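wait is this the right file?? whatever heres the structure
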C-alpha cells in the first residue's frame, strides 16, 4: 500500500533522518477514511514493537482488548491532542487495525501520513498537505522544533580511534597490503592491528570500520558501501543452497569459463531478470526472478534478521575515506577523512530496499578443486548502500578531516 502514496517516501525518510528520527507510515484508502479503520501493516507493527510502544502480537482479539493511547496530530495552527486506538477484531484471524481519531479531517486517500514517537506519545502529520510541507522546509517550524527535541544522537569511543587514524594519515600514502579491491580496507585494518572481519562483531571497541576510495578527479566516494553480509534464510527460501542459485540463474564467466553469478540486485530487474522486493505480508525481503509477466522467488531473508544484522554491525561506524595513487606499479592509500555514524534507523531498511537505495550483491562462482572436482564458492550475500543515500539509513553524521584535527 505504501507504494501508492502520492508523496515521495524517500524524501520524507531523508527529512526525518536529519533529526535522527525513525518513522512509521500510513497511506489511507478512501474506504479506510470513511469507515475510520486502517490496516496496521507489518512495517508499522514492527515500528511500534521496536520502539516499545505497542505489540500487536501480544494483544487479544475483540473490543475488550482495544488499546487507546494519547496522540497528537499536526494542523495548520499547531499540534492538536487526539487519541490512537489499536485493536484486533474478533472476526477471522483478527488482522491488526489502527485508527487515529480525527485523521479523516486532516488526510485524503493516498496521502502519506507520518508517525513518530516522543516521550511515549505518538505524533502524526500528513506530509502530503502543502501547509505541512512548508513546515518541513522551515527549521524553526512547530514540526521541526519538535523533531529536534525528539532526535537522539549517540557517539562513543571516537577520540581514541580518531587519534590512531590521525597518526596513520600523517604518514601520507601507504602501500596496499593486497592487490585487490579490498586493499583499501585490508591495509587500514593491518595498520590498526585488526584481523580482517566481514560478518562478525564491530572492528574496534564497538566501532565498525568501513574504508573506501575517493575518486581522484572528483574527490568523492563513488562506490557503494557494504553494510553487512547475510546468507539467505534457507528454511523460508524456495532454493536451498548457493549451488541451486548458481545452477538456476548463473552464467558462464568470460574470465574463468566456469558458471558464476556476480551481479547486483535492486528494486527493478537487472539484465538477468533478478531483483529485490519487500514482502510486507510475510515480513521478508525476496530475491525474485522475472520472466515476462511472471515472477518467481529465488531466496528470501526475514526482515527482522536483516535489521538485527544492521543494528549489531553499525551501532557506531567510522566510514574512512582514502585518496589513492600508483607508485612503482603498486596502489597506495592516504587516509584523509572519517564520516562517523551511530544508531542506524533500522525501520527504514525495508523501505530503502523497495526504493532501490539498498541493494544486494550475489558473489557466487564455481571453482575447480585441486583433485579436479568442482565446488561452489560465495564471498557473501553483500547488502550495500550508495554513498548519496547513507543519510537515509543513519542520523546526520559527524565528518572529521584527518589532516586538520
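ok assuming it is, sequence goes like this
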Amino acid at each position: 500500500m505504501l507504494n501508492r502514496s502520492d508523496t515521495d517516501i524517500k524524501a520524507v525518510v531523508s527529512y526525518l533522518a536529519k533529526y535522527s528520527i525513525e518513522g512509521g507510515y500510513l497511506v489511507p484508502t478512501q474506504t479506510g477514511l470513511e469507515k475510520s479503520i486502517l490496516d496496521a501493516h507489518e512495517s508499522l507493527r514492527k515500528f511500534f514493537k521496536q520502539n516499545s510502544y505497542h505489540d500487536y502480537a501480544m494483544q487479544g482479539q475483540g473490543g475488550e482488548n482495544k488499546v487507546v493511547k494519547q496522540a497528537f496530530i499536526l494542523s495548520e495552527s499547531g499540534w492538536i491532542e487526539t487519541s490512537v486506538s489499536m485493536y484486533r477484531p474478533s472476526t477471522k484471524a483478527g488482522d491488526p487495525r489502527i485508527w487515529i481519531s480525527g485523521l479523516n479531517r486532516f488526510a485524503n486517500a493516498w496521502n502519506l501520513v507520518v508517525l513518530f514517537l516522543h516521550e511515549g506519545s505518538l505524533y502524526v502529520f500528513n506530509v502530503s498537505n502543502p501547509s505541512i510541507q512548508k513546515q518541513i522546509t522551515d527549521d524553526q517550524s512547530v514540526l521541526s522544533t519538535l523533531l529536534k527535541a525528539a532526535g537522539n544522537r549517540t557517539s562513543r569511543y571516537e577520540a581514541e580511534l580518531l587519534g590512531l587514524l590521525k597518526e596513520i594519515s600523517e604518514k601520507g600514502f601507504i602501500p596496499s597490503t593486497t592487490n585487490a579491491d579490498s586493499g583499501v580496507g585490508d591495509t587500514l585494518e593491518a595498520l590498526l592491528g585488526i584481523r580482517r572481519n566481514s560478518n562478525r562483531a564491530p572492528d574496534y571497541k564497538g566501532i565498525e570500520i568501513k574504508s573506501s576510495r575517493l575518486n581522484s578527479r572528483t574527490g568523492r566516494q563513488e562506490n557503494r558501501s557494504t553494510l553487512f553480509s547475510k546468507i539467505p534464510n534457507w528454511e523460508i527460501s524456495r532454493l536451498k543452497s548457493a549451488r541451486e542459485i548458481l545452477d538456476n540463474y548463473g552464467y558462464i564467466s568470460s574470465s574463468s569459463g566456469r558458471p558464476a553469478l556476480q551481479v547486483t540486485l535492486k528494486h527493478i530487474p537487472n539484465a538477468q531478470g533478478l531483483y529485490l522486493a519487500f514482502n510486507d505480508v510475510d515480513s521478508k525481503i525476496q530475491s525474485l526472478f522475472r520472466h515476462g509477466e511472471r515472477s518467481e522467488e529465488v531466496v528470501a531473508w526475514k526482515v527482522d534478521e536483516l535489521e538485527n544484522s544492521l543494528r549489531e554491525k553499525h551501532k557506531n561506524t567510522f566510514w574512512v575515506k582514502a585518496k589513492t595513487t600508483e607508485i612503482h606499479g603498486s596502489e597506495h592509500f592516504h587516509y584523509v577523512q572519517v564520516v562517523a555514524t551511530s544508531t542506524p534507523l533500522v525501520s527504514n531498511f525495508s523501505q530503502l530496499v523497495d526504493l532501490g537505495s539498498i541493494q544486494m550483491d550475489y558473489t557466487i562462482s564455481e571453482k575447480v578443486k585441486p583433485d579436479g572436482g568442482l565446488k561452489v564458492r560465495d564471498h557473501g550475500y553483500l547488502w550495500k548502500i550508495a554513498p548519496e543515500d547513507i543519510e537515509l539509513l543513519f542520523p546526520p553524521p559527524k565528518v572529521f578531516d584527518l589532516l586538520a584535527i
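The first strand starts at residue 24 and ends at 26. so i think its the right one actually
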